[in-house]
Write a structure and sequence with these properties.
Strand order of the largest sheet: 3-2-1-4-6-5-7
CATH class: Alpha Beta
Structural class: alpha/beta
Mean pLDDT: 89
Number of domains: 1
Number of helices: 7
Strand content: 15-25%
Distance between the termini: 37 Å
CATH topology: Spore Coat Polysaccharide Biosynthesis Protein SpsA, Chain A
CATH architecture: Alpha-Beta Complex
Radius of gyration: 16 Å
CATH superfamily: Spore Coat Polysaccharide Biosynthesis Protein SpsA, Chain A
Shape: globular
């Protein structure tokens, strides 16, 4: 059976984290055939009650695994989660954030394609989080074209399913505190012609009070 780890990041999400867990946990349950799948939520040194809420939720949700680390920002937390999944022998890693921008119902289209591709990455064709963030994404794509010669539809979407073996292939090319690991993984996958697919996803406005540092 395929062993799935859903890796999620959380920073000062006390107002949202219970709803996010309640949305994603049933999806994990529906695919857990071996009792080893996990919803891994990494608290990045939140200053509010995010971690306490997660620990309380985990008492009645055996597939939920809250972790915590010293605050280091989005990039280091992504890598922390990936390395945890690798160390625990996950077959697939699915990454998203806990701010309510991604739609849990879109997971299924990723999972159904898992045997055809080594990585399936989200493509935010209709972003609802503001023109400034779309501008940043377009600028980032331009930089990747200039430096690496790759033309990716979406470099940094926080909705991606990857074979763990593929993540292992590239993760050690980045330092543990690298700021944009998803961008670099996407670039590596594209540059080295890995077997990947982009799937169109929705992307809502931010649902949380605090900007991720």
């Amino acid at each position: 059976m395929d062993k799935l780890y859903i890796v999620m990041l959380a920073y000062n999400e006390e107002d949202n984290i219970k709803n996010v867990v309640n949305q994603w946990y049933p999806i994990l349950q529906s695919h857990d055939m071996n009792g080893e799948d996990r919803l891994v939520i990494i608290d990045d040194g939140s200053k509010d009650h995010t971690l306490a809420i997660l620990n309380d939720l985990a008492k009645t949700r055996p597939l939920l695994k809250p972790l915590t680390k010293k605050n280091g920002g989005h990039g280091s937390t992504v890598l922390f989660g990936y390395r945890y999944a690798v160390a625990n022998n996950a077959d697939f890693i699915f990454q998203t954030d806990s701010d309510g921008q991604t739609n849990p119902t879109e997971f299924e289209q990723f999972w159904q394609n898992r045997n055809q591709y080594d990585a399936i990455l989200g493509n935010r064709t209709n972003r609802q989080d503001g023109a400034s963030r779309k501008f940043v994404e377009n600028t980032l794509r331009l930089i990747l074209r200039m430096i690496f010669g790759v033309n990716v539809p979406d470099a940094n979407a926080p909705l991606r399913l990857m074979r763990t073996e593929l993540v292992k292939k590239y993760i050690d090319k980045m330092p543990v505190d690298y700021a944009l690991p998803n961008v670099m993984l996407t670039t590596y996958f594209f540059y080295f012609h890995e077997n990947i697919k982009f799937l169109e996803i929705s992307f809502q406005n931010r649902q949380f009070m605090y900007e991720y540092n």
